[in-house]
Each structure stands twice: as structure tokens, then as C-alpha cells.
Amino acid sequence: MKKIATILSLFLVLYFWSVSPILAQSKVIERAITNGVEAKTIVMLLLLPLLATLVSVMHYILGVSGYGIFVPTMIAVALSATGIAGGLILFGAILMISILSNLILKRLKLHFWPVRALGLVFISVGVFGLMVISTGLKMVDISNISIFPVLFMILLAEEFTRTQLVKSKKEAIKLTLGTLGLAILGAVLMGWQGVAEVVLRYPEAIIVVTVVINLMVGNYTGIRLTEIKRFRKAIRKK
Amino acid sequence: MFNLKQYRQFLTKNERNKVYLRKNSSRGRMVADSKYKTKKSLMKVGVGVPKLLARFQRWDEVENYAWEKLEGNFVVKPVSGYGGEGIIIVRRRGKWAGEWHKMDGFLVNVGDLRHHCQEILMGKYSLHGNPDSVLLEERIKIHPMFLNLTKWGTPDVRVIIFNKVPVMAMLRLPTEKSGGKANLQQGAVGLGVDMATGITTFGIEGKGKEVEKIYDFGKKRLIKVNGIKIPQWREILETAIRCQGAIKGLGFWGVDIVLDKEKGPEVLEVNARPGLSIQICNKAGLRRRMEKVEDVTVRSSDHAISLSKYLFGEKFAEKVELKEKAKTIQSLEIIRVKIPKGFVPLLEKSPTIRQGKHRVVEVRAKVDTGAFRSSIDRNLAIKLGLLQPERVLYFRHYKSSLGEHKDRPVVGVTFWLKGLKVITAVNVADREKLRTKFLLGRKDLEGFLISAKKI
């Protein structure tokens, strides 16, 4: 299985390397841009699998992980849309509101989903309030963000409360910090001008890199970096 | 200093997920993931499980159940919960009807329980939030040996089984932090267990903090984590192996076994995705152990236990076995009888010697399996200070082998036979004319083999 993957990835690399001069300075992308597709959208779209790959590498080889693979990816996109500082403030606010609202709602002993819906009421009002305040203060501008980053942040806050309820607070904090770390890394990567240029110039290279890395990571059965620390205590001293 | 080769013995998360979990078929996983199905399949082959009181699949079943009639000794759990989440353990009835004390000391009432059941039904504790059902079962009676090791819940033994062979085990002790649950994830303490003897080795708390001492609630002080012997170890292993026959399609899995005071080992749960922290509290790698039994065709339960014992036993296992081997005694033995504190023995011939911190006297004793209780000569008893009025436990009517009827005093005696301490009650008889002044009855001969060799 491992061999097949290696051979396949080598083959793919060779194939694209020989074909890439033809695809380089990609005419398709140029045409798309002249036809009115936004360059930023193309970059985001092509970077999405690379972001997910980054998350999977971090998980399987380093052992750092967040809530699954899509939540960190989505938060990365959200952060790159709002700006990292603004996004973190937004998330902090949403998290605070949802924790506080949960504390209040827990006492009412309602069904599970009505509690969530009521929590959303608090969050919506809170985010609206935050927008109003931020326009007044003119510090970090989050008044003109679109609804999607807000939705992603709510999703993350929701994961946090769920994990905290079902598992433990420690686990929830760990996973949320992991998600935010991965997302910040992803957002930095997306905001990098050099990366955008590479994506636009060699879109096929990005795809090849993603495929090869994932085939390799997908077959990795070795130890994760964090596990070395974990198992250090399990080694008997002679 | 840093040597990556040492880590090769461990089963890593990546390898578990990619290589070993694939040895469990989807059917086996399905049974293992549902506590109800597990219980059903295990009952079929006669493996002990906690008694099922009720199972709720719909809301109205919860509503209509006669909660008030429950004795204060039950557990509410989600059928497809994992990592011990969503389990309420009730210890005893509260002051009022419909009110109970939980294992963590807090009170619950019928309303709380109903609400909790509802949350389970909604899927709050199941994987991916799917709708779930509720199990209501009897809480087991904790084995007295475990009672001292925890204040909050039921300790259990997790055994990992690969290719039908028990490869590793740990004793899991609930703590205050884990809220009475035995899951390491929740903060319970895990003690590694030697496969050959069932004696604990190392300990961790939660998912990785090493511990060297735990609190003994009986002795009211800290005790070492190593050297605790789990009772009925062989039966526990046998129970674990029998689960294999009940649930088809499992290749690498764990089973949680509790010891009931009366019914012996009972299976709480079968886990098709066992955690890896067990390697830390055993200070041993699962991967190396599993490689050893990978190609073996396991013939029987005994075969599996022998494999486990000889392949994975700790170094101290042989010593323990030697110690536990039944001691052989002759029909005439010298025993050492303890002299009560402060009493000066009235003996001329035999000297007082020391056994540890006690003063003892050597006495010749005759083994008689025909007698139930041991007996001591009246004169000797007086000389050793055993027949002081306050030491007499009670009088009992005896019929001697010669047909005499007599009321004999029964006194408490401590003696050492072949170095083993025996604390017992002995009746005082007239053995004036007999050669041996002490007769060893079968009550005090437990664990000894009697040789019929001529002396």
C-alpha cells in the first residue's frame, strides 16, 4: 500500500513537471480573471485544499489538532476575511456570550435544541452590539464584516460549549486553542502575497503538492511529535 | 540521550487507527458500541453482566416509569455513550421518596433523572449527536478489596485483547475529579497490572500524570501504587476471553470488568477503540506485545491465559508464584505460639524466642484433619497465659474421641506454622497424658498440603 502511494505520487510529480511549462502562466486563470472572476476568490478556492492539508499534517505528524479538519479550515478563511485581530475579538465576544447564556439557560432545564436557539438570540444581539460599539470606537473595525465569518465563529463557539458539556472544560479549551492556532496559521498563509502569486502562476503545482503530501501523511503510522512527550514516561529506566 | 528506537514498542494513535482498528469488523463494532447489544450477546453465552432494570427508547417510557420505587442502587447510562460520558451513578436513597444520593455526594430527584434521560434520548452523549436510548441497570456491589481504594465509584479492570489473547491490563480507580467514573479521560487513576499475577505495577492519573501513591480509605493513609493484588485475577481474564466468543468480529479491543462481591467478575462494557494510556501505567508497549501473539493460533481459553502469563508476566511473577505455592507440612510440626503481651511464661524447658516483634514459644503440634478446631492442653495454656479469664472467648460443649462430654473454653491464639501467621480460636482440652500438647485442626490448615511421609 505504501509503495503504491509512493510510486503514484512520484508519477504525478513527474507528469506535472513535464506538463507544467504548457500550463504555466496559466491561460485558464488569466481568462477567468479577465472575465470578471475575482483573483482573491480563485486564490482562496485553490488554497482551501492546501489549508486542509496543513491541518492534517499538523494532526497526524505533530499531534496538534482542533475540531476536526473543516472547522479550522473554515475559521482560517473567516479570519483572513475579517483580519486576525478583528476576528479574534469577534470570536472572544461570541464565546463569552455563549458561555454566559449557557450559564443562565442551564437553570431553566429546557430541551437541548431550544437552549441552543435561545443561545443564538444572545449571540446575534451581542454581535450586533459589538458592531455598533466598534464603529463608535474606531479601533478595530469589524462593523462591515459579512455574515459568513460570524456564522463560522458561532459554529466554533458552539463546538466549544458542546465539548465542554460532553467531555471536559480542559479538552474544550485545548481543542479551541488548537483550532484558533491552526486557523491563524492558515490565515497568515492565505494573506501572504507570495503564496497568492504562486497559486495564480502555478495552480497545478499546488494540486500536486497537496496530493503528494496527503498520500504520504495518509500512510504514516509512526509516532506523533506530542506522543513522544506522552510516552516518555512509559519508558522504563534500567 | 534521546533515542527514538525506544518508542518503537509503543502503539501510536496513527497505527492504532490505521492498522489495528481495522481488525474489528463493522458488525463487531456495532455490538460493542451499543451497551444494550453487548449485554444481550454476553448474557447469551453466560458471561456475568449487571442486571438490567429498564431500557427507554421513547420519551413516554421515561415519563411512565415508576422511578419512586427504585432502590437507591442503580446506574443511568446512554446506550451509545463513550468515554464514560452521561452516566449517573446513584448510591443510596435520600431522605425523601424520589430523591437519591449520587456517587459524587450530590442529590438527584426524579425530575433531574427524567431530564437527564431526555438529554440522552436527544443524543447529547452519543457519537455525532445521534438519537440514543437509555439503560437503567443495577449498580454492582463493590468487592471489599476495592472498597478502600476509592471513595467515589466502582473501580474496574480494563483488559486489552488482541488475537484472543489478553495483552495488557489496568486497574482503573475513580477519583473525586472523575466524578465516580473510571475513565482516565475524566481524571480517574489507572494502575498497570502484571498479566501473570494480577498485581499492580505503576500508576497514572488522567491521561498522563504519573502517580506513585494513592489514598487508602481503609487505612486512612497514602499507599504505594504497586503491589496491590487484584482478587480473582484468573477469573477476570477468563471472563475477558469469553467475551470474544460472544461478540464476533473483534480483533483488537478492550473490555471493562468489575468484581461483584457475590457474583464475581461482571462485564460493564466492551470497547472497540481502546485508549493508549494503558501503556503508560504499565510502562510497556502494546505494539511489542501484540507482535508476539500476532501469528499464534489460540486453541483455548487456558492457552490464551498461559500465553499471556508467560509472554507478558513481570519479572516478579515467578517469585510471587513460588510464594503462593501450597506449603507442605508433615504430620508432626513445630509451631510458634504467641505469648500475650506482658505475661511471663511459666515454662522451665522451652525458651522464649522472638518472631518479629512478638515473643513466642515453640510447641510440638500434631496434625489432625479429623478435628475441626485446634485444641491446646490446659496446662500448657495456663503456662503460656492463654487461659486468663479475659481471654476466654466462650465455652462450647465437646464430645471427645473417647466419648466424654465436657464444656471446654475456647480461647484466641496466634501462632506461626511454617512461617505463616494464623490467628484463630482454639479449644482448651485435657491433653496431659498425650505426647503432643497441641492438636492442629483442619480449620487452621487452609492452604497447606499434608504429607503422609513417615518421619
List keywords for this structure.
heterodimer; A: mainly alpha; 11 helices; B: D-amino Acid Aminotransferase, Chain A, domain 1; Cathepsin D, subunit A, domain 1; 25 strands
Descriptive account of the structure:
The complex is a heterodimer of chains A (238) and B (455). By secondary structure, chain A is an all-alpha fold. Chain A has a domain at 65-201. Chain A has helices at 2-23, 27-34, 39-62, 70-82, 84-106, 112-137, 147-166, 169-191, 193-201, 203-218, 225-232. In chain A, helix 4 packs across helix 7 and helix 9 (193-201) packs across helix 10. Chain A is flat and about 65 Å long. Chain A starts with a helix and ends in a 6-residue tail after the last helix. Chain B has 455 residues and is an alpha+beta fold. Chain B folds into three domains: 4-47 and 141-320, 2-Layer Sandwich (D-amino Acid Aminotransferase, Chain A, domain 1); 51-139, no CATH class; 327-450, Acid Proteases (Cathepsin D, subunit A, domain 1, Beta Barrel), CATH 2.40.70. In chain B, 22% of the residues lie in helices and 32% in strands. Chain B is built from twelve helices and 25 strands. In chain B, strands 11-10-9-8-7-14-15 form a seven-stranded antiparallel β-sheet. A six-stranded antiparallel β-sheet of chain B has the order 1-6-2-3-4-5. In chain B, helix 2 packs across helix 3 (35-44) and helix 7 (233-246) packs across helix 10. The chains are: A mainly alpha (238), B alpha+beta (455). Chain A binds chain B through residues 60, 63, 109, 111-113, 165-168, 219-224, 227-228, 230-231, 233-236, and chain B through 4, 6-7, 10, 12-15, 18-19, 83, 85-86, 111, 115, 118-119, 122, 124-125, 185-187, 204, 207-208, 210, 279-280, 282-285.
